Amino acid sequence: MAGGERIDPWSSEQSQDYARIIKQFGLGTVNPSELPNPGMLHRRGIVFAHRDLDVVLGCIQRAEPFGVLTGLMPSGRMHLGHSMVIDQVKWFQEQGADITVTVADLEALATRGTSLKEGRKTALNEYIHNYAALGLDPDSTKVYFQSSRPAVQRLAFTLGKRTNLSEFEAIYGFSGETNLAHVQAPLIQVGDIIHPQLEDFGGLRPIVVPVGIDQDPHLRLTRGIAGKTHWFNVKPRKEGGLTVALSVQEGNQRALGIIGGKVDNSARAILFDQMAGALAPLGFADILANPKYGTLDIPGATLDDRARVRMQMLALERELGGMGLMPPCSTYHRFAVGMTGNKMSSSQPETTIFMDESIEEMEVKVKRSFSGGQPTVEEHRRLGGDCSKDVAFQYLQFFFERDDNALSEIKAEYESGRMLAGEIKQICIDRATEWLHELAERRDMWSDRLDEFLAPDAL
Ligand code: TRP
Predict the structure, then answer these.
(1) How far is CA 258 from CA 245, 263, 274, 294, 323, in A?
(2) For ligand 1, is residue 369 a contact (CB within 6 Å)?
(3) Among 29, 164, 362, 449, which residue carries the largest CB count within 10 Å?
(4) What is the 172 CA–ligand 1 centroid distance (Å)?
(5) How far is the CA of 211 from the centre of ligand 1 (A)?
(6) What's the chain's average pLDDT?
């Protein structure tokens, strides 16, 4: 593929070249010092990239509403790798977000052959039960199923008008042999990501999607499609400030002051009054209107104002009859290494720890896990362990040791050779034991209260 590699969301093989991914796909990097109360995954560089996270940070700062939408396929058992998304969701929830969680049962049907019935069972027993145990707050969390939310499917269809097979080939590598259910899955995901902005699901507000980096293709698709629906484009202005430019398309001509293929001066003037009115609450001193050319300049605006200007224009677009869709924001986590040193995958149980793993099984897996220690004790004392390869260390870092000081002490001890490979594995086992016990206890607490997490259409 020209310009780099594709990301395949359905492959278990994921590139670990995060620097290249950031560059190729134009992602922002996460700077923990810019976040309020950064979480463990932020502080450790595990949540490493984003799109438009500043939009959400602005909402947090100004105490404005924003939402989180994320999802998981209900296929197989839930394991450690899945907990990272929930960790990110929890952080946003603590910052004031409302939470919508997709059970991607249609996607699991299309791409894994999981029946809807099977998917429902797995979602309830494995996923939702563990979301609860991992600490999501049911008061602001709503879980729904793709298969039972018509609004999502309608959006998939409506927004499907804005893309085509060539784009799907470019983004996903689909070809003539690709099963059509599989082709529909990304459009359903576009519907998932967009629908919390509909009036029935909370209305216009920024939505952030925390996911693994493998899901970025869906965000690129969704952001592109949302952009194509816009009646007003908000762009940096050459001379400084921002420009709002009309985007005339089939279906919005009259609303944008075009009658019979020509600009109607009085209709256009009314529209520009409405635009100025929409921007008034933001308090810009100067607004330069060019009704004839369909542009409006705001010289005093900065790039930081872009999201708020956009929100005002989207609200106006909705009043005028458009969809008014904010492009989604996103954050991305890295993948933890599999316990054998290769990829983590639920189809290879030895590569991960399941949420309901027995302590005995976990212990065996950690003891057998790939080690960054040296072949002999003598060498280890001299050269030290390699934390970048050591599964026990990595799992403490990604999952089990929440205390940064304790973690850096372990790192220093191990890298200096004072701590042996068997010793770091024992620490990992001890922490994992606490972690699994606590999770099991919390699962018990929630066993007969899972309904509290379900949206009405999921009951
Ligand atoms: N595609 C995701 C997965 O493979 C599941 C999913 C469906 C999703 N819709 C979503 C994730 C919306 C984030 C946002 O697990």
Answers:
(1) 14, 4, 16, 10, 19
(2) no
(3) 362
(4) 15
(5) 8
(6) 96
Q: Which atom of ligand 1 is nearest to the CA of 69?
A: 14
Return the best residue to mutate from 218, 219, 220, 329 for the ligand 1 pocket (most ligand atoms within 8 A of CB).
218
Output the residue whose Cα is nearest ligand 1's atom 5: 72
Q: What sign results for the dihedral spanned by CA atoms 181, 186, 192, 194?
A: negative
Instruction: Check residue 431 and report its DSSP letter.
Output: H
Q: pLDDT tens digits for 331-364? A: 999 999 999 998 898 889 999 999 999 999 999 9
| Closest Cα to atom 15 of ligand 1 | 72
The DSSP code sequence of 294-356 is TEEEETT--GGGHHHHHHHHHHHHHHHTS---PPPEEEEEPPPPPTTSS---TTSGGGS-BTT
If residue 44 lies in a helix (H) or strand (E), which one and from where to where?
none
**Ligand 1 neighbourhood includes 71 CB (under 6 angstroms):** yes
pLDDT of residue 13: 80
The domain segmentation of the chain, as residue ranges, is 18-228+328-335, 232-319, 349-446
Q: How confident is the model at residue 2 (pLDDT cuts 50, 70, 90)?
A: very low
Beta pairing class for 141-145 and 207-212 = unpaired
In short, whether 193's Cβ falls inside 6 Å of ligand 1 is yes
**∠ CA 452-148-105 to the nearest 5 degrees?**
90
In CATH, what number does 18-228+328-335 get?
Answer: 3.40.50.620
Kindly report, residue by residue over 134-176, the tens digit of the pLDDT: 999 999 999 999 999 999 999 999 999 999 999 999 999 999 9
351 alpha carbon – ligand 1 mean position (Å):
22
For the domain bounded by 349-446, which CATH number is listed? 1.10.240.10
With a 6 Å cutoff on the Cβ, whether 69 touches ligand 1 is yes
What is the token pair recorded at 456? Answer: 């009405």
Q: In what order do the strands lie in the sheet with 232-236?
A: 232-236, 242-246, 295-298, 288-290
CA 217 / ligand 1 centre spacing (Å)? 11
109 lines ligand 1 (CB under 6 A): no
pLDDT (0 to 100) of residue 3 = 60
Residue nearest to atom 8 of ligand 1 (CA): 71
Give the closest residue (by CA) to ligand 1 atom 6.
71
The predicted-structure confidence for 205-258, as pLDDT tens digits, reads as follows 999 999 999 999 999 999 999 999 999 999 999 999 999 999 999 999 999 999
